[in-house]
Design a protein that fits this description.
By secondary structure, this protein is mainly alpha-helical. Among the domains are: about 100 residues; about 90 residues, Serine Threonine Protein Phosphatase 5, Tetratricopeptide repeat (Alpha Horseshoe), CATH 1.25.40. The protein is globular. The relative contact order is 0.07.
């Protein structure tokens, strides 16, 4: 097995949500859970390279991280007396095997509710969840929220301090508190899925297990709130997107744009489930942002090929989404659809208002470049694609952009 840096990064990102959630529940300390897990990952790199991959990597990492956390507490004289004899020494033999019975499967959901402390702003809640649950760097989270890294670092420090000082019970909140925090938790699941669907870093552009974890948590949450139409819409959106998982990359790992994907490879059973969920949600007659996004995904799923896509319907749906969520990114997506309905010049006109707000967002420049190419303005297209390269694309994104730059240069 090739234990290179990219392999370890991808495996750790898959394991992280459950491991850090379990450690947080045990130690009641977000910083300690992160530190223990990070140290456990360093030990895993050395041990796995020398001895091979253990039968259960999650079990191994969690055991080593728990021991590390206890060691830290002991050095700081914070380890409770009843924990002194509980140090685990052999990850393969001593790991608790009854994961489901011990509640590990629910620990990620508990952690998300913890991150949704009402004293935090929605942005701080989301940033904290991305840092703790997905392990995104401060710089990556800052880019996602279109703020400076220093500003995001201050937000995260403040958020952790608020959680630590609030004496929050590290258990699933009661039903009344869960209702208050539901919208925030849904947003965090949305961000978690997006990190798996279009990873900010690492060798894998698509992290399927992260997407599957978000879907699992959404199903669990829907079991707690079966009447939430927005939660139905969220799960429907995940399923529509995930149905395309096997068609997004070619055999060499390069990105395949949506218009060029082989739709016979889309998971039809998942699309049917997503469609049924969306129909059920829409019967509640209370459309929200997740339902509209699911409806957008449904339009793509229903088209047998790109030319059969109902772009007029998509333009109407994006207009409805923008009324509910007037953000620059939604406006960017809306402009992309305008390019299909009214042409590239109209799309570029729509993008002009976003030039300042999305100057550090690589997909804004990628969209501009694509429209310049349609207009045969290859010099501007090349310049926009070069800007994308300066905004830290993933490996697969970089390969795609380099091909586009080469196409531009052929026509200059």
């Amino acid at each position: 097995m090739n234990f290179d840096a990219g392999w370890f990064e991808n495996r750790f990102s898959e394991i992280r949500p459950k491991a850090v959630a379990a450690l947080t529940r045990q130690f009641r300390d977000l910083d300690l859970a992160e530190e223990a897990f990070a140290t456990g990952c360093l030990k895993a790199i050395r041990h796995w390279r020398e001895n091979g991959l253990p039968d259960d990597p999650l079990a191994w990492l969690l055991t080593v991280s728990r021991n590390t956390g206890r060691d830290i507490l002991r050095k700081e004289s914070r380890l409770p007396p009843d924990e002194e004899t509980g140090i685990l020494s052999n990850p393969e033999e001593d790991y608790i095997t009854r994961l489901d019975q011990d509640g590990l499967r629910d620990d990620v959901l508990r952690l998300l509710f913890i991150c949704c402390h009402p004293s935090l702003s929605t942005q701080d809640q989301s940033a904290l969840a991305l840092r703790i649950v997905t392990g995104m760097t401060v710089g990556e989270i800052a880019a996602a929220f279109l703020v400076k890294p220093k500003t995001m670092e201050q937000r995260l420090t403040r958020a952790k301090k608020t959680v630590a000082q609030a004496d929050i019970p590290f258990e699933t909140p009661d039903m009344m508190e869960r209702n208050r925090r539901l919208n925030s938790v849904m947003l965090m699941l949305y961000l978690l899925f997006n990190e798996g669907w279009s990873a900010h870093s690492g060798g894998d552009f698509v992290k399927l297990r992260v997407c599957e974890e978000a879907i699992r948590l959404a199903r669990l949450l829907l079991g707690l709130f079966p009447g939430s139409s927005e939660l139905m819409g969220l799960l429907s959106l995940f399923l529509f997107q995930h149905s395309r998982r096997h068609s997004r990359l070619d055999d060499l790992g390069s990105l395949i744009p949506l218009d060029d994907q082989d739709r016979t490879g889309w998971d039809r059973s998942m699309i049917l489930e997503a469609s049924a969920l969306l129909e059920k949600a829409l019967r509640h007659a209370a459309p929200g942002t997740y339902q509209i996004q699911a409806a957008i995904a449904a339009v793509h799923a229903q088209a047998s090929h790109s030319d059969a896509t109902d772009w007029q319907e998509l333009e109407r749906l994006y207009a409805a989404l923008y009324r509910l969520e007037p953000t620059p990114v939604v406006k960017l997506n809306q402009a992309t659809v305008i390019g299909k309905t009214r042409g590239p010049k109209a799309a570029l006109d729509a993008l002009k208002s976003l030039e300042e707000s999305l100057k550090d967002y690589r997909w804004y420049h990628a969209a501009c470049a694509a429209f310049y190419m349609e207009l045969a303005d290859f010099a501007r297209a090349r310049s926009a694609y070069l800007t994308v390269l300066d905004l830290f694309p993933t490996d697969q994104e970089e390969q795609f952009i380099l091909k586009k730059i080469a196409d531009c240069e052929k026509n200059l």
